[in-house]
Amino acid sequence: QVQLVESGGGLVQAGGDLRLSCAASGSIFSINVMGWYRQAPEKQRELVAGISSVGNTNYADSVKGRFTISRDNAKNTVYLQMNSLRPEDTAVYYCKIQHRMKDALRYDDFWGQGIQVTVSS
Predict the structure, then answer these.
(1) Which of 47, 49, 66, 76 is deepest in the core (most CB within 10 A)?
(2) Eight-state DSSP code of residue 63
(3) What's the DSSP call for residue 10?
(4) Is-contact 25 5, C-beta < 8 A?
């Protein structure tokens, strides 16, 4: 019912910038938290940044000051602006939203397909 489509990944040199987008579509009723996670090979998936429905944000320590998460509620879209990228930022990035259907009490998690970000040294 809910689909997430990510875009904006790719290959960049260290110090470069990328902007990821994740647009939700389908039977959208209510979206709470939106966020970005990443997973490097043989590592656990980790939270990169999250943003609440009213714009409160949190970031992993490793990206503070370099990454900025934002959202456009009218477009059901969350963004991740990534500046000053480092090789250790290389990972598959996944967006996630918490979505609630009409009359439901709980939010369900929906994940994007994942998008590769590779930073060369």
Answers:
(1) 49
(2) G
(3) E
(4) yes
Give the integer Cα–Cα distance in Å for 79 and 22. 6
Q: Which residue bears the tokens 């959202």? A: 71
pLDDT digits (tens, 9 = 90+) for 94-120: 999 999 999 999 999 999 999 999 999
Residues 6+ apart with CB under 8 A from 98: 31, 32, 33, 34, 107, 108, 109, 110
Q: Are 76 and 31 contacting, i.e. CB atoms less than 8 angstroms apart?
A: yes
At 108, list the tokens.
């369900």
Determine the Cα–Cα distance for residues 95 and 110; give it in Å rounded to an integer.
8
Q: What residue type is assigned to position 118 of the chain? A: T
pLDDT score for 116: 98
Q: What is the mean pLDDT of the chain?
A: 96
Output phi, psi for 76, to 5 deg: 50, 45
Contacts 24+ apart (CB under 8 A), 71-74: 71/34, 73/31
* 90 DSSP assignment: -
